[in-house]
Structure formats: C-alpha cells, structure tokens
Amino acid sequence: MPVIEKLGHIFSRAFSPGTLIRKKYQAFKSLLELDDLSHRLMARLEQIHYEGKAVDSCVVRKTYEDLAHAISGMIEQLRTMAPSRYEKLSEVFHRIDADIRTALLREKIDRAEPHLLMLDQIPGDSELVVGGKAANLAAISRDLQLPIPAGFVITAGAFRHFMEFNQLEAKVEEVLAELDIDSTVSMGLACEDLQAMIEESRLPDDLEHAIVDFHGRLTKDRDRTVAVSKRSSAVAEDSTYSFAGQYRSVLNVNRENLAKAYKLVIAGKYSAKAISYRVRSGLADHETPMAVLVVEMVEAKASGILYTRKLFAASTSSMTLYSVRGLAEPLVRGTLAPDVIELSREPRPTIVRKQLGSAKSKAVAAPGGGIELVDLQPDEAAVLFPDDDLALQLAEWGLKLEAHFGVPQDIEWCLDEKENLFLLQTRPLRLEAEKASCEASPVEVSNPVLLEGGEKAASGVATGKVVRVSSGTDLHRITTKTVLVAPTTSPVLAQVIDKLAAIVTDVGSVAGHLASVAREQGVPTLVNTGRATGVLEEGEVVTVDADHQRVYAGMVEGLGRTACDSNGIKTDSPFRNRLRHILEHTSRLNLTNPGDPAFTVENCRTLNDILRFTHEKAIEEMFFLSEEGRGKVRGAKKLRSDIPISLYVLDLGKGIQWAAERSKYIDLTDITNPAMRALWEGLSHPAIDWSAYPKPFDWQEFDRISAGIVNVESQILASFALVARDYLNVNIRFGYHFVVIDAVCSKEINKNYIALRFEGGGADFKGRAMRIMFLAHILETLGLEVHPQGDLITARARRPSPSESRKKLKKIGRLLGYTRLLDIQIKDRGQLQEHIDSFLQTNAEG
C-alpha cells in the first residue's frame, strides 16, 4: 500500500513530542503494508488452487515463504505497538506454520545408495532408485527372461549427488519459482539457462570414474568398443505419467562422450516441454529425480512400437504393431509414417491386417556418434518388417508383459541385423474410453470439408483458429483454443498442449510421443493427413472431427466436444493435494466478528485468522492510544452518518475542522480532506440501497450506555481513516470483505494518486472472483490501472487533478456501496454483464 514519505513528517508534527505515539504509528504503517502484501500472497495461492493455474511447486513454496514472513512481520509490529500484550500470538503462528510446512517438505533422500547398478542387479520395487524406464526394463529380463540389451543405470541418487556437488539445487529452485508456464518465450529463456547450468557443471570424480568403469564391463571380452544409448529414466516416468518424448535421449554414445552425454540427459529434465508436462501433471521437481538408463546400441534392421490393445476400439480382442526400418527414433518423434500390422489377441495371436508405410528413409548410427537419416533402397521400401513369425513372437511377448504388469502395455522393440528381437522399453498404455461413449453423436453437417483422411491419434471434436507451426520457435504464437497445424508430431509441441483445441499434422503416427500426450490431455488429434499444412490457412476458424478424420470450415453447430474433454490439469495430483492442505491451514477464516468473546489468540486456527486478528488489534492499538485506562478515545473521532458504516477518523493534521477537535463525534462537514468527503458522498448516494443492513446507531444513547468507552465492533463493520489536509488512508470492512484506499488530493498534481485494494467476501471463490471481474470492468471505465488476482483487485490512478480525484473517488464510493453483496448475487457471466450494464446506466452521472 503506497504511503507518501511526507506522511511521517505530518504525523510527527501533529503528535510531537509524543515519541511513543510516533513509534506506534511507524509500526502501524509497516503493519498495514505487510497486511496488504499478505492478502496479495494469499490471493495468489487461492488463485492457483481455484483457477487450476499451472505453476511449479516452487512457486507455491516461495509464495508461502513470503506469506509466512509477512505475517510474522505483522506480529512483530503489533508487539511493537503493544509490548507484552500479544506474546501467545507468535506461539500460535509457529504451530500453524509448522503444520503447513509438512506439506512443503521434501522427502529425505538416502544419498549413500549405489550410484550405478547393472541391469541384472536391479531388484524389484526399485523405481525410486532407478526410475520407471530402468525398473520396467530390468523386470522384463529378471521376471520374464525376455531379451533386452546389456546395460546399467546411473541412479537417482547419482543425480542428487551431482546437483549437490555443484550446488545447483537452490539455483534451480530460484528459477522454477519465477517460471511463467504460460509464456513460451519466458519458458524458453529460463530453461536454456537451467540446461546450460547443468551442461557446464563438472561431474564429481567418483561418479565419472564409476560411469567409465561400468561401461568397461559392457566391453569386457569384446574386440571392439561398445556404443551405448543414454536414455532418461526419471522417477515417475513410464508410470501413471508417461512423460512420452518429454525428456532427452542421446544415442550412439562412444566412450569419450560418456560424461557429456550423461549431463545432456539430466539437463533434459529442465527442457521447457519436460517442465511443462511435469507441472501440468502435478509433480514437484524433487519428486522426479533423473536416473539415466545406459544400454548397448543395437544395430537395428527394424524397430517399432507394440500396443497390446488397439486404440479406440470397443473390442479388446486386437493389438497393433508399428514398425520402421532402422532405429525407432523417427517413429516416436512423428517424422515417419510406419508400417502397421494388426493382430488378434485370443486365443493365440494371429495376423488380421497389414499396411505398408510411406517412409522413404531410416535412422542409423552415425560413424562419429549420434544418428543420421539415410535413404531407403527400393527393395527395403517394398518389404514389410517384421515378417509374420517375428510379428507373432512380439505379440506373444506383449501378452506376457501385459499379464505381468496387469495393464495394457506400450512396448518399444528392435530387430538386429541377425534378426534377433530385443525389448527396449515397456510402460502402461493410456487408452481412451470406448468409441461409443467418446465420439460425438452423428449430425448433419453443411459446412465445407477442408480436409479428409489421415489417422485419429486422439479422439474428440474441437473448434478453433488455425496456427501453422514449423518448429519450436513458433510456439509463442499459440493462444488458447488454437488448432495447431504442423508438418510432424514433434514432441516439443507438447509444451503448449493445454492451449490447444486440436492438432492436425501432415505426417506422424498414432504411436508417436505427441500422440500419447494428446490422449493423456484429451486433445483431438489427426495425424498423417499428408497435406494439412497446405490446405488449412493461418487464422481461419475450423472444426476438427478427429473421430471421423475430417476438418470443416468454421464452427459446426451441434458437433461439440465429447465426454473425453480434459483441461490438461490433473485435479487429484500430489501437487493439488499438497496445495489443498496448505490452503486449509492458510486461507480459511474462522474469526469473523471482532466483538465476539471467541475472537481470541487461542482461537486462531489458520494464517487468515492470525491476519484478521492482528489487523483488528492493530486498529484498536492505533485508535485507542491511551496506555492507562485503555479503551478511552485519544484523538480518534466517530463519524456520524445515515448509512450503517461505523468509521473512526484520526486527524494527522488539518484533516478536520479546528472547531471539531474536542468533539468525540464529527459530521462529514467537519472533515476538510477533499478525498474523504468525495468518497463518503459516493457511499451515501441515494441510489445505493442500504435497506438490507441494520439502521445506524443512536450515537448519544450509545455514548451513554458505553460510558465513554468506544468499542470498535459495529453492526456492519469497524472502519478507520487517517486524514491530513490532502492525504487519505481509509480501511473499510464490509462484513467479510475489505477495502483499502490510499490517496493524495492536492494542488501539486505530480504528487497526486489514488490506490485501491479490494478483497474477500462471503460467497464461494467463484462468486468473489465474479465480483472482482465486475469491479475491474467499472474501474477501467473510470480510468484506473487495474490488476485483478482471484478474489483480490488492486487499482491505481496516477497524477489526477484535484477535480478528477474528487470525481473518481465519488464514483468509487458509489461502486463500493453497489458491490457489497454482489459476490452472493452473481451466479454466472450472464448476470455479471447485466450488473455491469445496470451500474453503468444508473451510476454514470458525476
């Protein structure tokens, strides 16, 4: 809350030589600034929860740390104002704070675990040590005796050892706490810094020596050096959360590049697409430490993916095998259209259908490391791989894996030049609902068909504007409800998956990584259309019907999204569960009535209770300044009014008529501050109906009954104002919501401003947020800069003239009176617009 520097000087002169009073005022001013900060931080936590905002858990941790620090500071300022009167408040705060921090604590890590393990040494139930990919691959060999390449794993403990050795953990958290997940530009820059930080760091000597030693075990008794692939195996990967294509793999790595390749893989944990996927899955950074799977490279004749259930099929009696020549990398990245073999499952696998792909090239190991694409020979392009016997063998293995893991499987395999099959990976296959329940009902469509054909990779129907993307550098152009049109199904596109209405690509595969993520997030996806980028124009509105492989011009009425819709944010995730726990002990308000005997320190059960208690007691301490005979007014005066607002005014100098200085009660005409007069005139306007509130006090009878002891509890609210000749700070409590206005209205226009904060309410978060939207619209029409956040709004006018200040404050007063119960009245956006129109029509005059 802005407070001008000269205010302290004004107050010093008004109360000089009262050193104690000046000290109390300075503490009060600091407390109000911390109060404002606390409300904004609490609003941010509520907004993240109720609006399902995608943020890293480090954002929540930092926001809470700042909130706890602010409230702790408020308690210290209150104790400065009233030494030894609120000792227990700190104890209550520390108890609540400790409870909240249980949800923020990371699990303790055993850093003494083995940093490397050969695949045949990995025991069961080891995912937290070796990650999902390595744990599953080890189980294939250990439990089912199926063939896998030789290899080892660099564990999650090694990753933590590396991060600790280079003192990177705090630096990473600092960057994650400031990430804007919705900005591809911001994400790109931040993630480049994070990855560079890791890639430029040094491996601890013990870890580097161990990696070289374990690689040597693979080459033992060999007459050649073994090239390896290094693949991500993060904790939580290849489980409920697939992370398909979001992390980095480095293929065909030689001995000299082992350390470099390891750092590249763990740095991939902080790519924009990986962070975006993790955050939207509700996982914290510390919950996904990166283990790295190192396996011998197979000189692949063919590679591919096996789905042990056919996607989108009402029947569960078939499975699908996808294959390409060479390595599978182009298949999973969606740059090649594969061969497809459909097989039955029961009673034994049999081949049902074959389809030759259209690939013209294949990926092979490059002589100097990495991989390269080479053209297929004509005889290669004409042959379907694998042959029938090998396809049936893979199908039988797939059924064994499904039975072992208990769910349908997504399996990666390869065939070497000697026609030996190897399994490279297995993870749960995400299946959509049955076709009958997931497709839109048939409707008559008169819209022109712009595109027909291709393959459905994710079910559904959606409408949006076309944005054509050729690479990751184009992602900043993606907005909400975009129909993304691209040449391939590159996994990098998953970074913006939550903004997409649908995806349409020229080539790609149902088995690609982006397709897997699209199914997880419920984004209709049509791939392998052959010509989408050539026929769908940038900016045109289209309707994508992935279920029937069509794209229509414009919006198709009646052809809406299906029951498979998803907003991409997991509501029941570790992150959301932690946040709910934090909010239960943070934002819930139990202390609502300062006059209630239960309004005590002992009954503070949340941080919001402490915030409310501290704020109310600070007002008491500031306005009841007498140290002896507490309760008697010392300077504060009650404003007589026909509206049910109980306001106490403290004059900082020339804010009240000299003739009223000795009176306990004042009228509006006694106030010389122009800002206060204008605001109160707006609140008192005849157009505002105050009939729902109790009538105001009989001030003389109240004074007689209280024997001169003024109680800040009132029927509707206890409010206060600090006034000087040209300065106003007023805090008004309307039941469950609060308004703070800070303003200077003087002849020196460059010093003038109006700052407003409005938060809270008695309705649910949706109702309160709707009222904030109403306020934002009206305040913008008054020419204020507006910053809404959840159920809190701040607004500011800079350098208005005195007449403009008075005019704006009068309208703000009328606006505040109009909105006092609006959070309960507004139920939807239609009613919101009705109230906006009503206010503008009936309250437009000066």
Structure description:
The chain has 846 residues and is an alpha+beta fold. It has 25 helices and 30 strands. The protein has a nine-stranded mixed β-sheet, with helices on both faces. An eight-stranded mixed β-sheet has the order 14-21-20-16-17-18-19-15. It has a six-stranded antiparallel β-sheet with strand order 9-8-7-6-12-13. Helix 1 (6-15) packs antiparallel against helix 2 and helix 3 (57-81) runs parallel beside helix 19. It starts with 5 loop residues before the first helix and ends with a helix. Residues 1-18, 433-441, 562-568, 625-633 and 693-717 have low confidence and may be disordered.
Summary?
Helix content is 37%, strand content 21%.
Question: Which short descriptors sum up this protein?
Answer:
846 residues; alpha+beta; nine-stranded mixed β-sheet; eight-stranded mixed β-sheet; 25 helices
What topology does this entry show?
Layout: H1 6-15, H2 19-50, H3 57-81, H4 87-101, E1 116-118, H5 127-144, E2 151-154, H6 156-165, H7 169-176, H8 184-199, H9 205-219, E3 228-234, E4 249-253, H10 258-267, H11 272-280, E5 290-296, E6 300-307, E7 318-325, H12 329-332, E8 339-344, E9 351-355, E10 361-365, E11 371-375, H13 378-381, H14 388-405, E12 409-416, E13 421-428, H15 435-438, E14 449-452, E15 455-458, E16 461-468, E17 482-486, E18 500-505, H16 513-521, E19 525-527, H17 532-535, E20 541-545, E21 550-553, H18 574-584, H19 607-623, E22 637-639, E23 646-653, E24 665-666, H20 674-683, H21 699-706, E25 718-724, E26 727-734, E27 737-744, E28 753-760, H22 765-781, E29 785-789, E30 792-798, H23 802-818, H24 822-825, H25 829-842
Parallel strand pairs: 16-17, 17-18, 18-19, 22-24, 23-25
Antiparallel strand pairs: 1-2, 2-5, 3-4, 3-5, 6-7, 6-12, 7-8, 8-9, 10-11, 12-13, 14-21, 15-19, 16-20, 20-21, 22-23, 25-26, 26-27, 27-28, 28-30, 29-30
Helix pairs in contact: 1-2, 2-3, 2-19, 3-4, 3-19, 8-10, 20-23, 22-25
